[in-house]
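User: Just a sanity check before I run the rest of the batch. Below are the structure tokens for the first item. I only need the designed sequence back.
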């Protein structure tokens, strides 16, 4: 699939991408993308995170050829979408949020139809392999209307794979999917990735981005507010929380600790938030002991992606 000799360094490269949706009816003009520049390395699992209306779908739809950009440039697998519209689109498979499937076709028929649509010669089709890969081999001859919601979703992924694209874009792949199926989709995404496919996914689930993605871009109000390898993004928050279960119940934070960012949780634990670059746990524990608090148990909590996300997207536009 991926010809390493001609494979580009970046699966996707966009430069100053802008989208202004024209005003219509009572809806005013909307500047949905305000100059996005992004380089997504070949071979990554890249997450695009952002609150509702941030511009994620607009970005994906421009790459998929469903929305016309207002200005800027975009390359898919090294191919400019204006100069090489057909070839650039052949390099991506896009799985949208909606389930579009004719209920009277079987999964096998649907994939064959799709392959025909992409001009994949009969001898090169991988319909059975793809159905097996998404766990639908035993449903290949069922009618689509007989499939569960999760199965239909996997069929949408299968549809996007018939032309063997080196880049797969998944728009909210696990929205509304139960935890078990979400885990099995993650496993499948990882398998695809291991086989060489570059994966780009949008998600509302921070846990999903944290778990799967090696790099994450956070989009807010049509702008990229952060784009970093996941561990680096997580390490941005220079604080930890020390949670102490006191031997004796505490009514209030003792005066001796009033200089700290400390409070008593409803569960009775003493919570102290501290900057890791300024204070060590040893020093804090010493202060706690000196305040006469017996320590029954303690844990430290590190910030997660949710905290980074909130910190970066909470400022008004
Ligand atoms: N066809 C359209 N005409 C006018 N405005 C649009 C159109 N499509 C999207 N928008 C607006 O552009 C902005 C970005 O929308 P977009 O769908 O790209 O966001 P999103 O990040 O994908 O959101 P979600 O997570 O809810 O899918 C929103 O304010 C939306 O209302």
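Assistant: Here's the designed sequence for the first item:
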């Amino acid at each position: 699939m991926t010809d390493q000799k001609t494979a580009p360094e970046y699966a996707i490269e966009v430069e100053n991408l802008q989208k202004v949706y024209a005003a219509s009816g009572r809806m005013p003009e909307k500047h949905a993308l305000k100059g996005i520049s992004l380089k997504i390395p070949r071979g990554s699992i890249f997450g695009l995170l952002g609150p509702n209306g941030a511009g994620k779908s607009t970005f994906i739809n421009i790459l998929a050829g469903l929305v016309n950009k207002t200005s800027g440039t975009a390359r898919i697998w090294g191919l400019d979408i204006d100069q090489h519209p057909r070839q650039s689109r052949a390099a991506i498979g896009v799985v949208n949020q909606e389930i579009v499937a004719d209920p009277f076709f079987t999964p096998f028929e649907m994939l064959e139809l799709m392959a025909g649509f992409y001009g994949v010669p009969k001898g090169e089709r991988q319909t059975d392999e793809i159905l097996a890969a998404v766990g639908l081999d035993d449903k290949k001859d069922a009618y689509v209307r007989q499939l569960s919601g999760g199965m239909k979703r996997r069929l949408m992924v299968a549809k996007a794979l018939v032309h063997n694209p080196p880049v797969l874009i998944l728009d909210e792949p696990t929205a509304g999917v139960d935890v078990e199926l979400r885990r099995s989709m993650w496993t499948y995404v990882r398998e695809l990735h291991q086989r060489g496919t570059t994966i780009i996914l949008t998600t509302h689930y921070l846990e999903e981005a944290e778990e799967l993605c090696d790099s994450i871009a956070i989009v807010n109000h049509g702008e990229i507010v952060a784009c970093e390898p996941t561990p680096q993004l997580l390490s941005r928050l220079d604080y930890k929380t020390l949670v102490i279960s006191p031997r004796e119940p505490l009514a209030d934070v003792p005066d001796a600790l009033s200089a700290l960012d400390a409070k008593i949780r409803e569960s009775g634990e003493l919570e102290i938030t501290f900057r890791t670059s300024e204070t060590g746990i040893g020093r804090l524990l010493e202060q706690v002991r000196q305040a006469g608090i017996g320590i029954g148990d303690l844990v430290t909590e590190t910030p997660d992606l949710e905290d980074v996300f909130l910190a970066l997207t909470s400022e008004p536009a």
